[in-house]
Write a structure and sequence with these properties.
498 residues, alpha+beta, Thrombin, subunit H, Pdz3 Domain, 4 domains, seven-stranded antiparallel beta sheet, six-stranded antiparallel beta barrel, 11 helices, elongated, protease
């Protein structure tokens, strides 16, 4: 009976395959695998280079040789121990310098000017950078600029009459999952290595930086491939190989490349300014979770939630308000909060952009003038000073309420001084948090201030009670709180109603 069921299932699969065979054949004919990439590779190999770097590290500490092990008199090999741990050797090795060398890949993008692209981590902290070409020639390179956020670097060599071969960038945005790609690089120091695979995935976030948007490929990429190009079948660079996932250190078919559409803007700025000049909205954002979407009555859990503004006089974002949900920036739809910083950063400083927002359930379009991103805007400070659990004995029992696992009090001068709350922060202060409560789970801390609930400002514990009662009356299960830390930084927290 089992065998008959298996045969029946196989027969059904065959019927489905037969009914769709014509359409599958058409697709296969249109996008068939390349029979060979030899002609393509031969025209590109000369543009791919090996990057060799060296760094001098000075010794500053004595090694373990200064404290010789205790060896009994007459013990076997005693004389060798004495020689090895002699004071003469200690003096020679103390503060000695040593050179560390590394290898990577790169590719020429401008033959006349000698411009070469590689990864920032390939040349980071290097004292000397040398470019090795396929014909065996070598040229010293200088660093024009680097960007650690996208892991890109731009080098320049003086061709000295040497004719270089350059490649050009393609459109990574139009590259699709399943498209054939070819990587050329310098794995383990073996220059001119060609591997072929497909695009396995797009828009990968591997927590390498704030603008992660990697192309994933199964083309073999190993150590030494970093900085090398990922080509499409037209010979255009659609990615810069930069990372792999590998427990063993070798390729397991999971490699990542920086998309060319992201790289070209960064490289243009490195060429022009020697640094990056990114656009900024001067706001803090949070993802729109399903809980937040439900609290704000949003149709979908998409967009980026404005959770506060950053003081920056170069930015005009007056039309944005805390609690707005950004759904479109210029022509780009914002489906995930992670997309917004990257798209804004790629925009020119000073540009005026139409930003589409959802506010109180209504869609609006406002204009924002971008400023220049400050590096500190990318940093998020977190405190390990967790005061969860227990009651604050100094909190006044009067003029306080207990809700959602928090004791909330009016923000008096005494409490403002005790918790170091800035003068421009207004709301209801959290004087205690019950362990394992809803507030505890969302890491609300004693001394933080509830500014509003479901976009309605609260100034007294009575305001909080009224808002919670209204939410329950409307059948809501969660409350959306805007919470301010002592430094004024805002964030949104969704708490379940008790």
């Amino acid at each position: 009976m089992v065998l008959k069921r298996f045969m029946l299932a196989a027969a059904l699969c065959s019927v489905v395959s037969f009914s769709q065979s014509e359409s599958f054949a058409e697709v296969a004919l249109e996008h068939k695998a390349p029979e060979s990439v030899a002609n393509l590779a031969s025209g590109l190999l000369d543009a791919v280079v090996n990057i060799s770097t060296s760094q001098t590290i000075k010794g500053t500490e004595q090694t373990d040789k200064t404290t010789p092990p205790k060896v009994e008199e007459g013990a076997p090999f005693q004389e060798y121990f004495n020689d090895f741990f002699s004071s003469k050797n200690d003096k020679n090795e103390l503060n000695q310098s040593r050179k560390v060398q590394s290898l990577g890949s790169g590719f020429v993008i401008d033959a006349e000017k000698g411009l070469i692209v590689t990864n920032n981590h390939v040349i980071a902290d290097a004292d000397d950078i040398e470019v090795n070409f396929t014909d065996g020639s070598k040229l010293k390179a200088k660093l024009l600029g680097k960007d650690s956020k996208t892991d890109l670097a731009l080098l320049q060599v003086d061709p000295k009459g040497k004719k270089l071969t350059a490649v050009s960038f393609g459109d990574s945005e139009s590259a699709r999952i399943g498209d054939w790609v070819m990587a050329i690089g310098n794995p383990f120091g073996l220059g001119g290595t060609v591997t072929v695979g497909i695009i396995s995935a797009r828009n990968r976030d591997i927590s390498a930086g704030p603008y992660d948007d990697f192309i994933q490929t199964d083309a073999a990429i190993n150590r030494g491939n970093s900085g090398g190009p990922l080509f499409d079948m037209n010979g255009k660079v659609i990615g810069i190989n930069t990372a792999i996932i590998s427990p063993s250190g070798g390729s397991i078919g999971i490699g990542f490349a920086i998309p060319s559409d992201m790289a070209t803007g960064v490289l243009d700025q490195l060429k022009q300014f020697g640094e990056t000049r990114r656009g900024s909205l001067a706001i803090r954002i949070q993802p729109v979770s399903q809980e937040v979407a439900d609290s704000l009555k949003l149709p979908k859990a998409e967009g980026a939630l404005v959770a506060g503004k950053i003081d920056d006089k170069t930015v005009d974002n007056a039309q944005l308000k805390d609690g707005d949900v950004i759904t479109r920036f210029g022509t780009h739809a914002i489906k995930d909060a992670r997309e917004l910083p990257r798209i804004v950063a790629e925009s020119p400083v000073g540009k005026i952009v139409d930003v589409t927002i959802l506010r109180n359930g209504e869609e609006k379009t406002v204009k924002v003038k971008l400023g220049r991103l400050k590096e500190k805007e990318l940093e998020t400070e977190t405190s390990d000073d967790d005061e969860h659990g227990g009651e604050d004995k100094k909190a006044e029992a009067s003029d306080s309420i207990h809700a959602m696992g928090m004791t909330l009090s009016a923000l008096s001068d005494e409490l403002r001084k005790r918790f170091h709350i800035k003068p421009d922060i207004n709301g209801v202060v959290v004087t205690a948090v019950t362990a394992n409560s809803a507030a505890d789970e969302k890491r609300i801390r004693t001394g933080e201030v509830i500014v509003d609930i479901n976009q309605q400002a609260v100034k007294t514990p009575e305001d909080v009670a009224k808002q919670l009662e209204l939410l329950r009356a409307n059948g809501r299960k969660n409350a959306l709180l805007m919470v301010a830390g002592e430094d004024g930084e805002l964030r949104f927290v969704t708490l379940r109603l008790e």
